[in-house]
Amino acid sequence: MSRPISKAIQYSLLTFFLASTSTAAEPANLAAGRLAYAACSACHLPSGEGVPLAFPPIRNRLPAIAASSAGRDYLITLVLKGISGPMKVDGTAYNGYMQGYEAVLQDDAISAVLNYIAIELNDKPSPAFTPFDAKEVARVRAGLKSSLSAMAKREALGLE
Fold first, then answer.
1. How many domains does the chain have?
2. What proportion of the chain, given as a percentage, has pLDDT over 90?
3. Residue range 39-64, pLDDT digits in tens
4. Gap between the Cα atoms of 62 and 84, Å rounded
5. 109: domain CATH number?
6. 106 vs 15: CA distance, rounded Å
7. Are 140 and 80 in contact (CB under 8 A)?
8. For 15-42, how does the pLDDT look when each residue is reduced to its tens digit (9 = 90+)?
9. Residues 24 and 118: beta-carbon distance below 8 Å
10. To which H or E segment does residue 117 belong?
11. What angle (nearest 5°) sits at the alpha carbon of residue 132, between those of residues 49 and 9?
């Protein structure tokens, strides 16, 4: 049985990787997003299909949610703070837990993983998708002390 990597080691590896892969030619930083997605894939699977009745699918979902500023705020909050409790996704009920990554991932890593999910785990190209960036994540992170939880934002968006 393998032991989980500590948050300090995860943070160090991601910081090193992000510093060595970020380029102006790749604003979405998909390589860094792929690396950060490794933590997500334990539950949502490498394909993003999720595990029925346990972990919801995220494949083909992000561009539509990210089309509004409230949706983008929700997605960033979700990665930062995590979420728990009952919810429906594509008509299927889930009642689980997703940890938050605010203490582990820097803003550029969070924007990279969201871009990776939206671009690489999306079967239909979405030319209207605007990539996330570290400044957007920093803005949401700074406002979290007084903002709604991820679940409250999800409910406000009427997501299923």
1. 1
2. 64
3. 999 999 999 999 988 999 999 999 99
4. 19
5. 1.10.760.10
6. 8
7. yes
8. 444 444 444 445 568 999 999 999 999 9
9. no
10. helix 107-120
11. 70
Q: Is residue 105 part of a domain?
A: yes
- State which residues form the domain around 78: 7-157
The reply to whether 117 falls in a domain is yes
Mean pLDDT of the chain: 83
Confidence band, pLDDT 50/70/90 cuts, at residue 5: low
**Which amino acid belongs to residue 72?**
R
Q: At what angle do helices 30-44 and 107-120 cross, to 10 degrees?
A: 80
Tokens for 35, please give them.
């690396």
Contact 56, 159 (CB under 8 A): no
Tokens of 15: 């910081």
Predicted confidence band of residue 124 (pLDDT cuts 50, 70, 90): confident
Is the residue at 2 inside a domain?
no
Task: Give 156's contacts (C-beta < 8 A, 6+ positions apart).
Answer: 70, 148
